[in-house]
Amino acid sequence: MTLVGRYKKSFKARIILPAIIILVVLVVILNLYSSVKFLNYSENMIKAQAVANVNSLMFYIEASKGNSKTAAVSMALNIDAVEAIKKRDRNEILRVFSSMHEFYQVDYYTVCDNEGLVLARTHEPGSFGDSVLNQQNVKDAMDGNIMTYFEAGTVVKVSVRTGAPVYDTDGALIGVVSAGVRFDLDAAVDSLKRKLNAEATVFYGDTRIATTIMRDGVRITGTALDPAISEIVIEGRREFSGEADILGKQYKTFYMPLLNAKGEAFAAFFIGTPLAELKAISDIIIRDGILIGLFGLIISVMILFAFLTSISRPIIKLSASMDDVAKGNLNINIDIKAEDEVGRLGQSSQKLIDIIRKLIEEINKTIVEHEGGNTDYCLDTSEFHGDYKKLANRILELADLGAVDQLTKIPNRRCFDNRLKLEWDRAIRGGTSLGILLIDVDKFKGYNDAYGHTQGDVALKTVAKVIPQSLKRAVDFAARWGGEEFVVLLPDTDFEGALEVAERIRAGVENTVIPSENEGAAKVTVSIGVNSKKPTPDSLIGDFITLADEALYRAKEAGRNRAL
Description:
Structural class: alpha+beta
CATH architecture of the largest domain: 2-Layer Sandwich
CATH superfamily of the largest domain: Reverse transcriptase/Diguanylate cyclase domain
Number of strands: 16
Strand order of the largest sheet: 2-1-5-4-3
Distance between the termini: 90 Å
Helix content: 40-55%
């Protein structure tokens, strides 16, 4: 066996065997760690499940409130409902309201006249004519207020109800619509159990009136709440969470009191999960996690073995070529034939990758920044050498020539067009307004004729400094439009905001002394056309600019030195 062959064999052995040993040790440690942490993990799972159940219960209750309110308000405005109430037509009221239970996801409607006498109940069609003024939601609706409460009634023991006033076309109160979602039905707790994957119970006072908990196949309704818990939840009006024994089973429980309009805890919700089930779930999760970890480690060993086995051909010529590339010589034909040590290959390759990646990233960022209007940004060429440095410097030169106005040193018209397209699309996506200012130096031709083009250039450069200084946000963008005209883009700015910025620019230019050997050429003024639009996909950029140009024309016609 040659020296190179022995080295190749030794190289693989030195890498693969320790790696396999390390991975095996990791598997053992993972199993030991999982076993030690099992109890803590199970407890965390139980707590997490309990928190999730509580959050889901809160969401269910809030959704029920929302459904109740939406149903009451919507039906109070329903034309057919209003007409039926006005006519006191009980059959029509029942027909109209009963058809809307499923649509608004409520369980019942109670409709009364303007004196609180029941005209119809969808849950008790044969019961009407009695007063419901004892219900707070109805009282509030009589006063013109739409309120939602947890309330108890004669038949519906526990529900959330919203009362909404019903007005005639002349604005007179003709009745009240009360819409409710019931919690005291087996169907309600069964639905809640399906949503939460947990047992659910509703108490009226301290008595179970709806529950999913069974004993010998029968719901345990009519049984009493634990006195200690009742003292906290019903009498103390506080939530309770912890473990409790129900029918000989330990549950992770949460009790929440339901407070009526008077702040009394007249009912309560319960959700609970058997601890045995939660621990069984956590056992399955941990077991699956260990199996997945073992499978992943086995796959990792196989991939590592295959990968290292394939790296058996050190490449001397490639290493030398890569060093030359890193020094700046790009005219090299990389020919992967000869073999050399992998360590040198890796170092040289990484060095080249890092340099090329850095250069490409910096060049792309410079181009993007310049096209977007940030002409102050430039890449740091000190990190590069040889041809890389030459290329970086050349890109900088081209970026400046392509994006910056050479006289005023602010972005040019081409750069502005790119920025306008960018901000236009961004405003469409965000649904925001985009402001634009077209700025023209007043009577600039006369200024040039009087003081010469050199002094005219000084004036333009001075104005080009004042405009960006008048912008207070980094996102605002100023550019030279052409000749003696400038343009400003104001993202997320309505017309009033754009006009305010325009006035600030106008005043800034008016109050700025322009350097000059001739005292008479000290100042210029500008006229500014203002436009702002919330663009849509159908809007045209040309129309947006045209409106600003028309505003600029009106500003000139109105006497110049103003923003319109």
